[in-house]
Amino acid sequence: MSIIDEIPVDILPPRRNRIWAKLRTNTAALFGALIVALFVLIAVAAPILPIPGPAETDWGAIRKAPSMSHWMGTDELGRDLLSRMIWGAQASLLAGVVSVAIALSIGVPLGVLAGYCRGWTDASISRVTEALLAAPFLILAIALAAFLGPSLRNAMIAIGLSAVPIFIRIARGQTLQVLTEDYVESAHAIGLSHRAIIGRYVLPNIVPPLLVQATLTIATAIIAEASLSFLGLGQQPPSPSWGSMLNTAKAFLDQAPWLAMWPGIAIFFVVLGFNLLGDGLRDALDPRNT
Amino acid sequence: MLRFIGRRLLVGLPTVILISIFVFLMQKLLPGDPVLALAGEDRNPEILEFLREKYRLNDPIYVQYFHWMGNALQGDLGMSLRTRQPVLELLGQKLPVTLQLATMALIIAVMIGIPAGIFSAYHKGSWIDWLANIVALSGLSVPNFWLGIMMILLVSVKLGWLPASGYQPFFEDPLQSIRTMLMPAFVLGTGLAATLMRHTRSAMLGVLQSDYVRTARAKGLVEQTVVIKHAMRNALIPIVTVVTLLFGELLAGAVLTEQIFTIPGFGKLVVDAVFNRDYAVVQGIVLCTAITFILMNILADALYRVLNPRMNEQ
Amino acid sequence: MPINKLSLVTAALMLGVSWVHAADLRIGLAEDPDILDPDQSRTFVGRIVYASLCDKLVEITPELEIIPALATSWEWSADGMTLTMKLRDDVTFHDGEPFNAQAVAANIDRSKNLPESRRKSEVKSITGTNVVDEYTIEIMLANPDATIMAQFADRAGMMLSPKATEEMGLDFGAAPVCAGPFSFTERVQQDRIVLTKFADYYRADEINFDSVTFLPITDDTVRLANLRAGDVHIIERLPATNVASVKADDSLKMAQAVSLGYQGLTINLNNSDRAQTPLGMDSKVRQALSLAIDREALNQVVFEGVFAAGNQPFPPTSPWYDATNPIPARDIAAAKALLAEAGAENIEIEVQVSTNPVAGQVVQVVQAMAAEAGIKINIVAKEFATLLSDQSAGAYEVSQIGWSGRVDPDGNIHQFMTCEGGINDSKYCNPAIDDLLNKARTSTDLATRKASYDAARKILVEDMPIIYLYHQTWIWALDDGVSGFTPYPDGMIRLHGVSAE
After folding, report:
1. Per-residue pLDDT tens for B239-261?
2. Lower Cβ count inside 10 Å, N or C end of chain A?
3. Whole-prediction pTM
4. Cβ contact A252–C241 (<8 Å)
């Protein structure tokens, strides 16, 4: 009987709580989470807020500066900017989230497959990953736009597809690592099915780095949507998205700088927020930081 | 080592072919064809049909692909349907431009990202960490085209410090060449600085907590020696690989930045070519960038093995 | 104290002195020109380069009158089928070859017979040429053609050195040799086109620059920023919304001219079965849509009133404009009445538009206006190549498209409205219109032509295959030191008499 056995087991709090505690003390991550939550709230609440429609034009109120009747001013066709910013939040956040969802749903299965099966499966998936990485993303985006018409939906598909390789890599790397653990070998030994092994051991262990990467990729996707609108792809008028609003606004920097200010600030903070949150999650989930 | 590189090159070949087929197919399936797209206003049907026949655009897709592939293997990458300039010549004109932009952007990214990563790893959790984080992330949080326009308006128009656009070949006039590329390189570099910072921080953290660093500290070595001699040397390994990979990405062309600053590099060329359905140009560029990317990958892996004596054969 | 190398470099980098000598004129273009061969060229912006590179047989004045250039005089035969032109005797091509009647004959032959020539439809009526003597040439036509002189004022009339065209063939564009004020020096695709002053130009005293550099800068905001930063002297196609701020800027000047072209909505009348819509089948519905649009307001909202509202292929300032058909005021009641008559209240139509933001704004304004008459417009944005392809194939209901305009009125209407017209994407076909338009292009008498166009207008106002919306205004912004610039309605930059300090 050693001293180690005498230590009460409940001194070390369960793993989940430790992660939460670490996150709580990381001010940057909290700041990021706060920003993200705020914008998500606004985006979700868009339909029920008492704001004018985002496509309501008003020829008499073109490019008016912020005032009591239009808190953020109006745009080049007289539409209320506050309303367009709020609805644009929906579009931009969707662009981020849906793209990542697409990337995850394609990338994770492929990555796990590659890591689990090895051999030819791994080799061919790796070749496909490399090919996807080497093919320029914008060509894909333009091609999709030409095929299916430029729209937010097709922009999300293009961005999602171009993010697939990252998730394949992570999923594959983590799967390989998990498979070297002793408990997995024992699981094999006692005859657990492949599905059970993947479901019970692999998936839960690859979630943390995937979560971190997903958060960071949402940020990249929001910027990518803005970049696509510069080329005339992405969200089409009259529907708003911060990216397309920023793109139109650059033509009016002299006359109406507020047109660019709001979407620019919003993109900056949302992307910063997701990045801080992602970095915070990575620090919290890093097993070295005990 | 040679065998490793050789094997990777061999393996990279099917990837390149895969990409070329994929991109070719994609272009051919797009609605519209170059003859109409490039016809602009003068789109008289008779001449359009003549041109389609001449450029074999009515042939089945696989025939067109093999025709292209056959020529490519002999060094003839076709010509731009827009200006009849040979694609190889075009690539030759644009490659140095993209190379210079990529190099300058990478230098700036390294100058910002690595020190930021080292500082934030060393002072983990303190306000320095916070600050370095925010600084590095700012470059990521603004769309490139936006940052570019803001910089032009401030630096060129208001202050008149740097030219707003244009390109000067490096060997003709190095100073002017750097001046024209400084802003676009900055815009690109700040975007990459964050990624570099993250990896540096991660690598440094791993190394600072490792056994040999603890040993060095226990031995009573001066802190600076610990950091520079022991920690960084090992942290550099993953950093070098990341830098190599980023360079490969940069070479694919920074479309929006090139568009804004009117830098005649790959990015701008390829986007215009896709919009104009200028097949040969797109194929040529994608081939070029794919090969470069794969070469960079191989280089990164090779460097990793060279620098890390403990790397095992997989 | 030793000067630190770093501070030297920094100082050098900070010296924002742009080396813009007055000897080199730098012009910012809105796009990169395509191949620099007038016979193969298809873009508007290419013509801007030609204005300095390749002189033509005849030129135009800002009032669109045809004046001598490389040709000194011309006369028509009695039956209008032979054109005799006398040429200048003091002109040499950039490669030293003499300009003479043989050169003109070779050029016309190339425009007509080169398989890749885009000018074929423009010189279709020419059957042959006859070199009378060294500086006199006869051009024979298959039928009287009023448009020929105007074609000679554009790319079909640009004279290329026969030696160069023979040597280079289709690759003439890589190093063009013409007879204009500047000769070709260098071109880097998407970067610059550099031309150098041609010493033996016959009007060399009117040219005040040693070289001209054309810089394609596609983004409007960046192009203006370049001008403001002093990196270019002149920019073309300044967006209408920047006019106010350029006017307020003392270091810049502005010049503008209403263009020869138009922008409108082309309606699919008979091009594939997408034309089976109330709009495509009933002219009353089209008239209703036209009445629902307030063109002046559109001009005001999107272009701050700088452009010109329009309802015909020619702008209201053009001598060809039919004054008996002025721009209609908006009339929602009449529009609704017409729709009721046609049994088409509350219809939905699809309008395709390019991804260009300005075009998008125009269509959004039209969408809002039409909604009040009960016409719901669904906007479908398409990437430009797809847009053109769909339009050609008839895969559209309404397409927002324009035309950059030609000096001769025929160029703005014939190929769009005649049954076999080359760019008749709406597939509008009315034999009466064919007769009138063909008559207009064969008569050289202005009054007869105008009468034909006016008569055609009466029919087209009813049938309305194209709803014209506005006419672009070409706007140039120049550095304050540039003087002598004359705006032309064809959008070209002519450098004769222009100087910069």
Report:
1. 777 787 788 777 766 888 888 88
2. N
3. 0.88
4. yes
